[in-house]
């Protein structure tokens, strides 16, 4: 299970020893796509505005709305103006210089796999390239451009959300460093979609620059990978499917932060404190952030994935032969399922190369430790055990083997002292940050506690993809009525289906996932699987307990939401009021001690659960005049609740803590 | 439209002019009265029966003048002389006897080939190496009684067991011979064919029509599973022009005639067909019909389906033909289109009435160099618009003008278009100027008549080049497709790249030659040729590698909106893609025609379906 992965190089090291200015002004001559016909930004806009694709849509819109084609053309031009990047090397150099200073203050190191860089360089020359970084922080795309500049690679053109544009000067500067801005939602706007997609395709087809965007669509507040958004991926695959380029290289990039800048910000947001609007002044207030230590960053440029080989045997490209290619068409079913499968595959490729720090293991352990203080030795022992499990599962774990384990643990705890207190060598039960004031009211105390828990959970979540399949199997064994293999599989399938909005689980891969989980757990001696039965071994107990507890907060969260929908939800429940109502219900449950996991307060979990229930048809949406109401299928929700909580969770707990 | 008697003048110039106005009538809608005045008196317009068929014909023993294991004439080939310089032997071509010092360098640098590494062809297999014929004695007896000449000689049979696909020639050069026809017959007219087909049906014998043998679709390969006697029906002796009708500008010709003979004989009478496929030296009229052939001058004269007025074919069910020579009919689906492209699966085409034209008064070559392929293709499109405009705007004499080829040189991005203008002098010069003006708009530079002419000549000798390559570990082939205009550049890029990539993946040690050209233009698209060759040193089964790459290239062509074939046909080589090409129902239609016309599968070459 040990995967071959590249070594890292710290790019800050050199920066600490020589002039940042010289670095920023260095000779920059990146290799370019071999088929490139160079063109200026103005020419690019003309290419887009004069494309057959756009002409077609302009005429269509003009016919539908009765506006003159010239006016629609004007609109298109304005949209493009609002959207387009204006990359300027001078701005890039300015950013390079500034970011140097910032990065050196914030981070101990920025580690990059240089072999990945070399592969990328090769890929850029051969075919148009799409960069797909994971998205955990605002830093991501600045960091990406910074790294590419450092390695003398072509700077990407980056799809950014419009909200950045609100940041006056910074927005413009981002634009000049290669960002282009897209509205957050433009579902029905044909013209906008046409301008946008043609803009991206023109850049890509001509190999003008690598196109960068975030598959997850937005920053993951939980550090779990988000269900991929298909819009942009559809657009960038289109030129290949229609034969306009020979191939496209898609490069997943995994950016792992030892400590996320937005850590508590995210937690508050998940608990319902709305996210501050991106504003320049807000960014400067973030200066306080500058004085802290954020550890190191690992950036792993994955193996370039050829869209051509992905599509081989999956998409019949002849389907585009019978209509002119410039007429926009909804993707056919096979194209849709191909793009969807590719998206999942790429997200998994991102996950796979995420570097896990020892703290991720500590956070996972601390979250499971509810009722007794741990001394640091015990914690170290557990961490070492988990480290070995992790490695057996093929995780990309950076555990410094040359440092004594106790030091590894204490330095990790130290870096995250905002989240965990250590007193006299003992780590108190559960995560407990300094934000917990004994004087506050019970609800406020609970919320403060939740901020810390959710922050910790975001670190545990970094390792979720490693454990996910075995953990689902472990949980499935618990909710199954017997150890019969088919029944365990059914439970596994049920959980997988239930949680497919929560975790990255490729559609249609239930069997593979089940087999993968079985394989891992059998290989590590946790399970014995016969023709008929799935049985746990004696020495597998510890692992199973760990895995089940990892899933528990999710199971309990979904279960409570079902409970809420059956018991509390009124007829007037709307999409908008769902989250606050659920949250209120949960707070009550938590305060009364009927609920264990404060983690369930995460709005992410609540939204995912609702999406799952809607998908399963347990809740139905009815669109009213001004709001969408939710109609609950009580029978179904009730049965889901029962299945999720087949064995009382309490019982599980005692079984494992004895 | 009464004919206007011109008073019996015998002035040749006037007659020629009248002919031209008749052609103008073929091409134009009658817009004014002037065009139709020149019809002639009966004397000069009657048919000329039995126009001379003496002169060069293809002998029954083809191997006397043609290579048995390569392209073209025995006496003509490329070779490296003692000094290591390339030369072209013989006396037949402009290139013959010339030394080409640059060829060696090109050859070595393009393929990484070396004159030291030779792969000579093996000698012609003796008769013991060829399977003894499976003979249906009763058929042979009956055939003897008809007096139609036939042969069971091994060389004759081997010669007719293949076309010119790479794998076919490669096998011959290695002395490998598979299933070959069991006998060869040489009918000398339509009636002979009728007798042969009758006997074949009577005795359940498999017939494979053979014309010029230039197939590149495995169409002539004998199905190895065929257990009946296979008789190759060599039409080469049916090579007469039976009559020329100057009034209607048609000629009635036996289908075995080869292209160059047809042109030569028509030229003697001042006419031409204008149908000039690259293989016209050897390919036959019947073959053109059976494969839906296309010539490089098709923009003026049309493709074979536009040129035929009447077709006669002998099938197991009898003779199929139309009852009149009307230029167009609305009588249900055109039965000609069951015959055109039937690839020898339905019967033998014996006689064809074809349109003819007076020979052009003036010819001029030309060429244009473009900075890149993209510009060149854009220019071609525009030129095509010009042609349409000219014809639509003027009711004048026909202007003969076409692009003969268009070649992309990849590494330098440079590309050349070669041009041939035909017509009356004044018009040709005017057109030439227009074309160069358009070319200039696309960055094209006139590159002289010589280059143009050379390009045109090369068309005929290019096939000889492959044989040279095969002497030195280089194998290759060209294949074609047709594609809408908006796809031309994309398909060229993707297919070339696919070839290069597939070669690499399959262990070809040297970078392959992978290039293309646009050879024909239509209003709605173009015909694109791909050239693919590589040095196979170090490969244990080069032909298999070649076939895999070509297969992948064809997949790529189809995925990029290209057709299965523009004019080479399907044969057995491209059969597997037929269903997706013409749909299941389309296949059913074709099958039902076959089932009706030839229920006993007498024409059992198994092409197409």
Automatic annotation (TrEMBL), chain A:
Keyword Secreted: no
UniProt-listed GO biological process terms: ether lipid biosynthetic process; fatty acid metabolic process; phospholipid biosynthetic process; triglyceride biosynthetic process
Pathway as given in its UniProt record: Phospholipid metabolism
Domain of life (superkingdom): Eukaryota
Gene Ontology cellular component annotations, sorted alphabetically: mitochondrial membrane; peroxisomal membrane
Organism annotation: Sphaeramia orbicularis
The protein's name: Glyceronephosphate O-acyltransferase
Main location, first listed in the record: membrane
Compartments (UniProt record): Membrane
Similarity section: Belongs to the GPAT/DAPAT family.
Residue ranges annotated for the Phospholipid/glycerol acyltransferase domain, each copy included: 129-258
GO molecular function, one term: glycerone-phosphate O-acyltransferase activity
Transmembrane segments: 141-162
Pfam families found in the cross-reference section: Acyltransferase, GPAT_C
Keywords: Acyltransferase, Membrane, Transferase, Transmembrane, Transmembrane helix
Keyword Transferase: yes
Gene: gnpat
UniProtKB/TrEMBL annotation, chain B:
Domain of life: Eukaryota
Cofactor(s) this protein requires: FAD
One GO cellular component, as annotated: peroxisomal membrane
Residues the record lists as binding substrate: 466
Pfam families linked to this entry: FAD-oxidase_C, FAD_binding_4
Enzyme Commission number, as recorded: 2.5.1.26
Predominant localisation class: membrane
Annotated GO MF terms: alkylglycerone-phosphate synthase activity; FAD binding
Catalytic activity field: 1-hexadecanoylglycerone 3-phosphate + a long-chain fatty acid = a 1-acylglycerone 3-phosphate + hexadecanoate; a long chain fatty alcohol + a 1-acylglycerone 3-phosphate = a 1-O-alkylglycerone 3-phosphate + a long-chain fatty acid + H(+); hexadecan-1-ol + 1-hexadecanoylglycerone 3-phosphate = 1-O-hexadecylglycerone 3-phosphate + hexadecanoate + H(+)
Group of enzyme by EC: transferase
Alphabetic keyword roster: Acetylation, FAD, Flavoprotein, Lipid biosynthesis, Lipid metabolism, Membrane, Peroxisome, Phosphoprotein, Transferase, Transit peptide
SUPFAM superfamilies: FAD-binding/transporter-associated domain-like (SSF56176), FAD-linked oxidases, C-terminal domain (SSF55103)
Localization, UniProt: Peroxisome membrane
Annotated catalytic residues: 529 (proton donor/acceptor)
Residues covered by the FAD-binding PCMH-type domain: 177-359
PROSITE patterns hit by this protein: FAD_PCMH
Pathway(s) this gene product operates in, as recorded in its UniProt entry: Glycerolipid metabolism; ether lipid biosynthesis; Lipid metabolism
Positions annotated to bind FAD: 209-215, 291-294, 343-349
GO BP, one annotated term: ether lipid biosynthetic process
Oligomer and partners: Homodimer.
Function: Catalyzes the exchange of an acyl for a long-chain alkyl group and the formation of the ether bond in the biosynthesis of ether phospholipids. Catalyzes the exchange of the acyl chain in acyl-dihydroxyacetonephosphate (acyl-DHAP) for a long chain fatty alcohol, yielding the first ether linked intermediate, i.e. alkyl-dihydroxyacetonephosphate (alkyl-DHAP), in the pathway of ether lipid biosynthesis.
Listed PANTHER family: ALKYLDIHYDROXYACETONEPHOSPHATE SYNTHASE, PEROXISOMAL
Similarity annotation: Belongs to the FAD-binding oxidoreductase/transferase type 4 family.
Protein name: Alkylglycerone-phosphate synthase
Organism: Sphaeramia orbicularis (orbiculate cardinalfish)
UniProt lineage: Eukaryota, Metazoa, Chordata, Craniata, Vertebrata
Gene name of this polypeptide: agps
């Amino acid at each position: 299970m040990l995967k071959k992965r590249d070594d890292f190089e710290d790019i800050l090291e050199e920066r600490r020893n020589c002039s940042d200015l010289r670095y920023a002004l260095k000779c920059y001559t990146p290799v370019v796509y071999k088929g490139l016909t160079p063109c200026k930004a103005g020419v690019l806009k003309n290419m887009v505005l004069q494309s057959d694709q756009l002409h077609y849509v302009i005429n269509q819109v003009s016919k539908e709305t009765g506006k003159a084609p010239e006016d629609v053309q004007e609109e298109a031009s304005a949209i493009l103006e609002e959207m387009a990047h204006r990359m300027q090397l001078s701005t890039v150099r300015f950013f390079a210089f500034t970011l140097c200073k910032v990065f050196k203050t914030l981070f101990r190191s920025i580690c990059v796999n240089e072999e990945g860089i070399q592969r990328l360089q090769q890929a850029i020359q051969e075919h148009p390239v799409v960069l797909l970084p994971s998205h955990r922080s605002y830093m991501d795309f600045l960091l990406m451009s910074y790294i590419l500049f450092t390695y003398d690679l072509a700077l990407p053109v980056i799809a950014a959300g419009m909200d950045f544009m609100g940041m006056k000067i910074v927005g413009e500067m981002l634009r000049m460093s290669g960002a282009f801005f897209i509205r957050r939602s433009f579902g029905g706007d044909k013209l906008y979609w046409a301008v946008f997609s043609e803009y991206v395709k023109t850049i890509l087809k001509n190999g003008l620059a690598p196109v960068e965007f975030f598959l997850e669509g937005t920053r993951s507040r939980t550090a779990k990978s988000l269900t991929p958004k298909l819009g942009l991926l559809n657009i960038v695959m289109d030129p290949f499917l229609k034969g306009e380029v020979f191939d496209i290289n898609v490069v997943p990039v995994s950016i792992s932060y030892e400590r996320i800048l937005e850590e508590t910000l995210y937690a508050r947001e998940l608990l319902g404190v709305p996210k501050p609007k991106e504003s320049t002044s807000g960014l400067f207030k973030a200066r306080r952030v500058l004085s802290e230590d954020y550890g190191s960053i690992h950036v792993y440029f994955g193996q370039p994935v050829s869209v051509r080989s992905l599509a081989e045997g999956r998409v019949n490209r002849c389907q585009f032969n019978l209509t002119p290619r410039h007429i926009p068409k909804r993707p056919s079913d096979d194209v849709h399922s191909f793009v969807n499968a590719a998206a999942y595959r790429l997200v998994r490729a991102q996950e796979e190369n995420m570097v896990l720090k020892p703290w991720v293991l500590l956070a996972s352990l601390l979250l499971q430790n509810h009722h007794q203080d741990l001394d640091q030795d015990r914690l170290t022992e557990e961490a070492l055990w988990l480290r070995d499990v992790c490695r057996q599962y093929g995780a990309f774990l950076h555990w410094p083997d040359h440092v004594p384990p106790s030091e590894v643990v204490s330095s990790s705890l130290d870096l995250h002292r905002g989240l965990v207190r250590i007193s006299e060598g003992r780590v108190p039960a559960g995560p407990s940050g300094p934000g917990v004031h004994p004087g506050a009211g019970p609800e406020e105390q609970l919320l403060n506690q939740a901020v810390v828990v959710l922050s910790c959970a975001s670190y545990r979540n970094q390792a979720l993809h490693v454990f996910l399949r075995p953990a689902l199997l472990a949980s499935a064994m618990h909710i199954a009525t017997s150890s019969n293999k088919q029944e365990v599989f059914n439970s596994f399938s049920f959980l997988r289906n239930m949680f497919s909005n929560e975790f990255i689980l490729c559609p249609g891969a239930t069997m593979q996932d089940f087999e993968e989980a079985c394989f891992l757990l059998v290989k590590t001696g946790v399970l014995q699987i016969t023709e008929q039965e799935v049985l746990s071994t004696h020495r597998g107990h510890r692992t199973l307990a760990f895995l089940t507890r990892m899933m528990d907060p999710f199971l309990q969260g979904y279960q409570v939401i079902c409970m809420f929908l059956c018991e509390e939800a009124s007829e007037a429940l709307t999409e908008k009021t769902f989250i606050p109502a659920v949250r209120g219900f949960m707070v009550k449950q938590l305060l009364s001690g009927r609920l264990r996991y404060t983690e369930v307060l995460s709005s992410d979990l609540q939204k995912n659960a609702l999406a799952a229930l809607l998908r399963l048809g347990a809740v139905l949406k009815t669109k009213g005049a001004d709001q969408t109401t939710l109609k609950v299928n009580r029978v179904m929700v009730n049965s889901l609740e029962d299945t999720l909580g087949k064995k009382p969770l309490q019982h599980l707990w005692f079984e494992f803590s004895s | 439209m009464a004919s206007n008697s011109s008073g019996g003048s015998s002035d040749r110039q006037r007659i020629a002019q009248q002919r031209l106005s008749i052609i103008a009538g073929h091409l134009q809608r009658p817009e004014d009265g002037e065009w139709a005045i020149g019809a002639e008196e009966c004397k000069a317009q009657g048919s000329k029966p039995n126009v001379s068929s003496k002169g060069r014909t293809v002998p029954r023993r083809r191997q006397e003048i043609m290579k048995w294991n390569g392209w073209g004439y025995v006496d003509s080939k490329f070779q490296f002389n003692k000094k290591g310089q390339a030369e072209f032997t013989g006396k037949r071509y402009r290139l013959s006897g010339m030394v080409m010092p640059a060829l060696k360098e090109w050859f070595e640098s393009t393929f990484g080939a070396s004159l030291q590494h030779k792969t000579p062809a093996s000698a012609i297999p003796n008769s013991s190496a060829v399977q003894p014929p499976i003979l249906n004695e009763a058929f042979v007896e009956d055939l003897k009684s008809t007096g139609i000449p036939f042969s069971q000689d091994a060389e004759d049979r081997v010669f007719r067991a293949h076309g010119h696909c790479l794998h076919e020639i490669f096998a011959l050069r290695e002395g490998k011979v598979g299933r070959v026809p069991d006998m060869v017959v040489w009918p000398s007219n339509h009636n002979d064919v009728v007798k042969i087909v009758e006997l074949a049906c009577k005795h359940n014998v498999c017939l494979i029509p053979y014309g010029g043998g230039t197939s590149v679709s495995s169409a002539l390969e004998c199905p190895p599973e065929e257990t009946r006697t296979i008789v190759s029906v060599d039409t080469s002796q049916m090579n007469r022009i039976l009559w020329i009708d100057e009034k209607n500008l048609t000629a009635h010709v036996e289908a075995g005639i080869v292209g160059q003979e047809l042109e030569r004989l028509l030229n003697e009478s001042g006419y031409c067909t204008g149908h000039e496929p690259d293989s016209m030296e050897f390919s036959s009229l019947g073959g053109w019909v059976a494969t839906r052939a296309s010539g490089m001058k098709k923009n003026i004269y049309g493709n074979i389906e536009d040129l035929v007025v009447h077709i006669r074919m002998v099938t197991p069910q009898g003779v199929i033909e139309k009852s009149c020579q009307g230029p167009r009919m609305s009588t249900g689906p055109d039965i000609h289109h069951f015959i055109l492209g039937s690839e020898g699966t339905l019967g033998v085409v014996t006689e064809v009435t074809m349109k003819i034209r007076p020979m052009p008064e003036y010819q001029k070559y030309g060429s244009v160099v473009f900075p890149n392929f993209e510009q060149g293709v854009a220019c071609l499109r525009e030129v095509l618009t010009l042609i349409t405009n000219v014809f639509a705007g003027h009711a004048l004499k026909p202007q003969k003008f076409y692009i003969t080829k268009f070649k992309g040189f990849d590494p330098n991005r440079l590309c050349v278009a070669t041009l041939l203008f035909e017509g009356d002098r004044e018009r040709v010069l005017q057109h030439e100027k227009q074309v160069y003006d358009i070319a200039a708009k696309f960055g094209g530079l006139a590159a002289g008549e010589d280059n143009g002419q050379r390009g045109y000549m090369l068309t005929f000798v290019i096939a000889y080049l492959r044989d040279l390559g095969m002497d030195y570990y280089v194998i290759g082939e060209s294949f074609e497709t047709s594609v809408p205009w908006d796809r031309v550049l994309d398909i060229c890029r993707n297919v070339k790249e696919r070839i290069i990539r597939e070669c690499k993946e399959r262990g070809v040690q040297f970078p392959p030659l992978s290039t293309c050209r646009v050879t024909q233009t239509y209003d709605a698209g173009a015909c694109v040729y791909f050239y693919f060759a590589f040095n196979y040193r170090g490969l244990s089964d080069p032909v298999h590698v070649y076939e895999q790459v070509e297969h992948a290239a064809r997949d790529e062509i189809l995925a990029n909106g290209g057709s299965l074939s523009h004019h080479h046909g399907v044969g057995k080589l491209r059969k597997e893609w037929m269903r997706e090409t013409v749909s299941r129902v389309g296949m059913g239609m074709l099958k039902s025609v076959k089932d009706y016309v030839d229920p006993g599968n007498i024409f059992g070459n198994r092409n197409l379906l």
